[in-house]
Amino acid sequence: MNSLYKCAVTALAALIFLSLQAQETKGEGKDWRERIMSEKIAYLAGAIGLTPEEAQSFWPVYNQAWEDRGKAQFEVMKAYRDLEKATDENRTKDIPALLDSYLDAIRDRDRIDQECAAKFKKVLPVEKVAKLYVGEERFRRQQIHNLHHGKK
Predict the structure, then answer these.
(1) Reduced DSSP (H G I as helix, E B as strand, rest coil) percent helix, strand, coil of the chain, to 5
(2) What is the pLDDT of residues 8-29, one digit of tens each?
(3) Computed over its alpha carbons, how large is the radius of gyration of the chain?
(4) pTM of the full predicted structure?
């Protein structure tokens, strides 16, 4: 029965992905971020093996977590750019405070990652949470591979 649910969820994700692809070719396409996110959702749905009930409770939590993680990563990159600019311009008085800001942003991002994992564990079995993290990393590596080898 579990494999039936897995197949159904995977088929549904693939159907959504294909319909999004069809829209793109008609000129009603999405920007690259939305396209990658659609591919990622389809990939993760298959990798995790969610039941329909799990999917219903998981995806809203995942979407909120993705937004929170994105904001935290934005703050890390902003702090990094400020620190990089100060080091390039040799602004030695500003560097200690900017370094602290950068490290604080990294700590905040890591704290948010921990909170997200705890939220995932509330809606999914720990084995599926582990599959989520493995799936995200595999998807990331696949995208990097595609980028390096010219696949669009």
Answers:
(1) 90, 0, 10
(2) 444 444 445 445 455 544 444 5
(3) 19
(4) 0.72
